[in-house]
Design goal:
about 160 residues; Glutaredoxin; 5 helices; about 20% strand; globular
Length: about 160
């Protein structure tokens, strides 16, 4: 790989991370703000009374691409007991669209074009996932995606909420 390109990619990721963590971060025990109030692009599913995974991602994020099949697996496994909402933070919708053509999913995908939700939630890294209980309270938080380890944690955490 071209080292100049790699350096630019690393710099962009660091700058994006610094920008994303500028506000007060949402944490375990907090209630996720009402998503409908953020003018997100795309259709928000009904989340009332369901376990919800809200996953912040970007098209340039390799771990995000790795997490999508797992999120899709979870959505299929738990059906109407779980809602997965992937919140894209790309500046350009075309970048998101190109990513979704390569990584088709069955769960809801919305875009935070105005960067208002991401500024409120302040995810630490890409991806960042919040697992909510049926009242909208953050029960679990994942910074990054670490393959099978994260997948197992998701399964255990979802099961603990559904009990």
């Amino acid at each position: 790989m071209n080292t100049s390109l790699l350096k630019k990619a690393v710099l962009a990721a660091l700058l994006a991370g610094a920008w994303l963590t500028a506000g007060a971060a949402l944490k375990v025990g907090d209630t996720l703000p009402e998503l409908a109030s953020y003018s997100l692009e795309g259709k928000l599913p009904d989340t009332r009374g369901k376990v919800v995974i809200v996953d912040f991602w970007a098209s340039w994020c390799l771990p995000c691409a790795e997490s999508f099949p797992v999120m899709d697996e979870l959505q299929k496994k738990y059906g109407d007991r779980l809602v997965v909402i992937a919140v894209n933070v790309d500046e350009k919708a075309s970048n998101m669209d190109k990513f979704l053509k390569k990584h088709a999913v069955t769960f809801a995908v919305v875009r935070d074009a105005g960067q208002k939700l991401v500024a409120t939630v302040s995810p630490e890294t890409m991806p960042t996932s919040f697992i909510l209980d049926g009242t909208g309270k953050v029960r679990f938080l994942h910074n990054g995606f670490h393959g099978e380890t994260t997948r197992k944690e998701y399964l255990s955490e979802i099961e603990s909420i559904l009990k």
